[in-house]
Amino acid sequence: MWALAAADFGAELEVVELPRPEPGPGELAVRLLAASVNPFDRKVVGGMFRGSAEHRFPLVPGTDGAGVVEGSGERIFGTFFHKPVGVGTYAEYVTVPEGNALAPIPDGLDPAVAAALPTAGMTALQLVEALGDARSVLVVGASGGVGSFTVQLAEAAGKRVIPIRRGDSLVEADALIDLVSTDRSSFEANARYAPLAFNTNYVSADPSQNFGMKGSREDLERLAAMVLAGELEVPIARRVPLREAADVFAGRGPGKTVIVMQVVVLAR
Ligand SMILES: NC(=O)c1ccc[n+]([C@@H]2O[C@H](COP(=O)([O-])OP(=O)(O)OC[C@H]3O[C@@H](n4cnc5c(N)ncnc54)[C@H](OP(=O)(O)O)[C@@H]3O)[C@@H](O)[C@H]2O)c1
């Protein structure tokens, strides 16, 4: 199979041919149609779990994807966390252990759109739920994957959203969602603007402010239903075929990048 992989921690991604991963006990084998890129993937290649988890090299990153289950033919999307680390979704095939959040791709939902939903969409959904009855919310990092979903979902929940993009100044609000700070002092500076504050990079000394997404099939189904109903726009900024995607960590920019595994030719 073709895959994007890093030969070592910190190495550039390369398009490589690898053996298909074999499913272990309780694992599904999935032929991927699309995968989306999350900052977590770049961090894993950078060595986030070096020394604390077993890795397989060449390391194929990627936790989010949409594909077809081998054998049953069911079309699914969700998260594909794997141990050892390195059997990821930037590939034509992946295996997925039990315990991951997976849901059927509903009829009418483009697999590339489904692949863009899991991590960013579930994080946004759960962050907005964590806001409780806060009436206004600052979203720092509003133009990114999580931020784009968070702004839409918070507005749909009736909150006054103050999106903070690079260079914007903060103002006081009931709540703060900080998707950008990677150190405690910068989060603490932002958290002064709101009595309720969350970050997604685990930088606060107060664990209740360190938000961690929990994968859930129900949340995936809710997100897919909202997209189909036209209630949630999926901000795909770039769709790139797998064999041309070695640069996916280089470009940032707004919205989501989706790696597409094959060109689907629709019958007339
Ligand atoms: N804890 C969890 O469960 C969890 C779940 C999902 C994500 N995360 C983490 O949350 C963070 C955001 O994820 P993501 O998927 O949204 O990433 P992303 O798509 O890369 O978006 C980050 C956004 O922040 C913007 N930004 C950077 N510096 C900024 C600044 N100083 N002020 C305002 N905006 C700024 C970036 O804009 P530019 O394009 O201008 O740089 C980008 O649009 C990542 O660190 C990710 O690892 C954690």
From TrEMBL:
Source taxon at top rank: Bacteria
Enoyl reductase (ER) domain residues: 10-259
InterPro entries: ADH-like_N, Chloroplast_QOR, ER, GroES-like_sf, NAD(P)-bd_dom_sf
Alphabetized SUPFAM superfamilies for the sequence: GroES-like (SSF50129), NAD(P)-binding Rossmann-fold domains (SSF51735)
SMART domains assigned to the protein according to its UniProt record, in alphabetical order: PKS_ER
Entry-linked Pfam families: ADH_N (PF08240)
One GO MF term: oxidoreductase activity
UniProt-recorded name of the protein: Enoyl reductase (ER) domain-containing protein
Taxonomy of the source species: Bacteria, Bacillati, Actinomycetota, Actinomycetes, Pseudonocardiales
